[in-house]
Fold this sequence. Notes:
By secondary structure, chain A is of the alpha/beta class. Chain A has eight helices and nine strands. In chain A, helix 4 (about 120-125) crosses helix 5 and helix 7 (about 200-205) packs antiparallel against helix 8 (about 225-245).
Amino acid sequence: MSFPSQEPLLSLEHVGLAFHQGGLALRPRPPFWVLKDISFDLYRGETLGVIGRNAAGKSTLLRVLAGIIRHDRGRFINRAQSISLLTLQTGFVPYLTGRQNAVLSGILLGLRRAEVEARMEAIIDFSELGAFIDQPLSAYSSGMRARLGFAVAYQVQPDILLIDETLGVGDAEFKEKSAQAMHERIRSDKTIVLVSHVPGTIRELCDRAVWIEEGVTRAVGDVDEVTQAYHEEVSRRQQRHEHAIRAL
Amino acid sequence: MISSFFSTNRPIDHQVIDLILYKTYADLRAEAAKTYINYLWWVIDPILSMLVFYLVFGLLFQRGGEGFVAFLLSGLVIWNWYRQSVAHAGGSILNGKGLMNQVHVPKLVFPTVTLLTDLTKFALVLVLLLVFLWISGYPVNASYLALPVLLVVQLLLIAGLAFCLAGLVPFVPDLRFLVDHLLHLQFFCSGIFYSVKDLPAQYQGWFYLNPMAGLIEDYRGVLLHGTWPHWGRLGLIALGSTVLLAVAISFVHGRDREYPRAIR
């Protein structure tokens, strides 16, 4: 799927971002460029997969897109009203009840207080917590917390949803339910950026893909072509690695 | 004006106001839930700290005498509000690092929330202080009309310092250690357990360079003696605090997206 005639919701042109070493030092260390040259567009209604190995800069890129940190160079044009990173259990406090935590978390994720309260029934339903919702969070199992976290995050519907990797959500049974809900949302006409290092996930769920390597976009476009190129690079590296081990 | 600083596109961001109010409520609830006697601590804690001072200065040093308890209590209540607010708010953005790396939170929210939680607790203690004073023979008088002005000026002063520190500490964490000592020094310079008349005459002018010294004296004038505040001095404190607050807000707001990177 491509949208050549449409104006992109997000545009990144040669975006770069560096981390600086803080504190007084005799010799200031040079900045470390996590993102060096990232360029791609995101169109309304598509699901864009971002693929790359560990430490390629995927998480940093998501934080730039979510507006948590600002890039240092290049251009980042955002035409969307709201973008948010799917985060679970954001702002959860053990001493408050599940209901209070749900409200706090929902507001942090961008909802009005009244909106969260109006959706409380849906949150309780989805999380399968029942009367436990009024117990303090410290009495919850980790699975229950995860369910509540997901149920709240699922109520937030930004213009652009950013998703990082597979979601670790509690017990196996709920994992299936949450994954199914997530897949449904991804397949709908929502605009989504999905980050993963598994080509299969990207191929299954995305319309287009971006491959990022060491902070640089290596390829943008058709899912199959991009994941294929990524796959080849990974196996090339693996071969080189094996050669190096054999040479020892 | 201030609300426009919180928002990037809309004049008043109701969502941010929801966040500030609910987070304040949640923080107060969570703090109370940590202990057995919950909210009672907000009252017992200041009473215990006042007892310590009364034991040391009233009994041990024999500084007591007529009206010493009321004198000491009013100074301590006012001072504690200042110290706690400044100390708590100073680290508030730094302490919000977990949250600010997950979602975008306007960084001014963090010190605003701690200021509000401390203000709530202070309000409770202030009511108790007033009741105590009325019982002990210091009745409500005409100069009480100046009390709201004093409270607002002190709030401005607290907010100016708190936002300043909150904005600087993430970049220079070392400041926190310095602030503890400076607050300690300021405590001894604010005339909480002595009055300015006890100082050598040549230092009395310097004494009022510390805004808390002037404020505490004005509060005592209103609460204990029925005299009006020193308006000129109060105006200067208000003006200075407002300038400081405006500078601090624009500093923090301008670096809104730098904090998550600075604090890791």
